[in-house]
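Z., the sequence and structure:
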Amino acid sequence: MKSITTAELAAREDVPLIDVRERDEFAAGHVPGAVNIPMSEIGERLAELPAEAFDVICQAGGRSARVVQALETRGYDATNVEGGTGGWIAEGKPVEVPSA
């Protein structure tokens, strides 16, 4: 399984980012540009995944690692973000919070 750090994620450009946390977690704050497809819904939302390589993030890296492993078996080019959104926030990186 391919993995990157939050620092490597911050340096990436034009790579789609899928956030697999639940909707309420995503709404509380997420990496700018991330698209929310919760782990609990990903099986029925595979058509929404990018055709090209993409990154997968969760809160700490556990759920995203499981999702990446499952997607790899289906032929997707997915990379896990180690440390997740929690690590991103702890490092002081910018966060998007959707307006109500």
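The chain has one domain: 2-90. The two ends are 37 Å apart (CA to CA).

Let me know what you think.
H.
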